[in-house]
Amino acid sequence: MQVLERRERLLRRRRSRMNAQLKIIFPPPPVVPDHLQRSIAALKPNEALAYAKREIEKTPLVTDDPDLYAPLFRNISVFKRSYELMELLLKVYIYKEGERPIFHEPHLTGIYSSEGWFMKLMEQNRYFVTKDPEKAHLFYLPYSSRQLQMAVYVPKSHNLRPLSIFLRDYVNMLAAKYPFWNRTHGTDHFLVACHDWGPYILKDHKELIRNTMKALCNADISKGIFKAGKDVSLPETTIRNVHKPLRNSVPNSFKYWKDRDEDMKIYGPLPTRVSRIMSYAEHMKSSKYCLCPMGFEVNSPRIVESIYYECVPVIIADNLALPFDEVLDWSAFSLTVAEKDIPKLKEILLSIPLKRYQVMQHNVKKLQAFPLEINAY
User: Fold this and answer.
1) Main-chain dihedrals φ then ψ at residue 73, nearest 5 degrees
2) Which Pfam families match (predicted)?
3) Where is 93: in which H helix or E strand?
4) Do 102 and 11 belong to one domain?
C-alpha cells in the first residue's frame, strides 16, 4: 500500500507539472450587439431554448460558406445556425462536488483521453460555464470514467458493481443537495465517458442511465444504453503527448486476411521486419483505405487516426453509432462494411470507382478541420 500511495503521489505531481505547462488559447466569443446581449440575458433557460428552436426552424439556406465544406454535412444550413445559437446562448453549470482524482482531474493521454480533454477545456472556459445554476441549460457531471476505473476497480475481479454504486451514490448526493436533478429527473444533465465500461457503470441508477444525455466513445446501439438522437457518439483518439496532442495521433478482419494478400496489408502488432521499413503512421499515409474494425467494444481510435493521416476509413463495426452522425454525412468520406462481409473485403474495395475514391479522399482532407473546430472550446 505504501508503494502504491507513493506512486500515486508521484503521478499527481507529474500531472500537475504537465498541466501547469499547458497553454490553451480559446477562440474569442462571438460579437453580439449590446441590445441583443441584453435581450438574451433576460431570457430564462427554457425561454432561450424555445427561442433557439424557432430560429433553427426558420434557418436561411446556406449553399456556400468559407469556413465549412458543405458536402461533409447532412444539413449545413441547420448546423451553421445551431452552432451560432450555441455560441450565443448556451450556459453549462459544472457541479463542484467530487474529490480528485475521479472528479475534476482529466486524464489527458491514451485512448480514453477524449473525455479528459473535454473536461479540461470545459472547466477552463468561462464563456459557456456559468456559476449560477439557475441560468444553466445543461448540468455537467465532471467525473472521469478512466480515473474512476483506476481508483475503484479491483484488478482481475471482473466486477464493475463498485464503480456503478459509486456513481449512484454521487448522483443521489447531488439530488439531495440541489433541486436541479429532481425537477427534470436528470434530463438536462450530461456526462462524458470514453472508457469501454462507460455505459455499463451507469446501471445502478435508473434515471442516470435512462434520462441523462451521454457522450460516449462506446456508442453501441445494440445494448439499449446509448440512445441515438439523444446521446452523442464521441470520437475516440489516442493522445501520446499532452503538449502536442495531435502528434502521432485484434478483429475478425485480421484473422481472415493476415498474410493472405499482398494488396491487403493487415497486421496485429507491426512486425519488426515491417516496421524497419515503414512505420504505422507511414503505412496509413501511403494507403488508399484504412480498415477501422471495432476493438473489444464497438469503439476504436482507428477512425480518427485514419482521418488524421488522410486515409479513407473503412468502418467495420455493425453496432457503432458513428461520431457526430446527426451532423456529418459519413458516406461522403468513408465506407461502412458489414462484419459478415469481411471475406469479401477486397472485392468490395476494388469495386469502388476511382472517381468516388478521389472524392472521399478529398473530403477526408476537408474533414480534418471539423473535429478541431468542434473541440476548440
Assistant:
1) -110, 150
2) Exostosin_GT47 (PF03016)
3) strand 92-94
4) yes
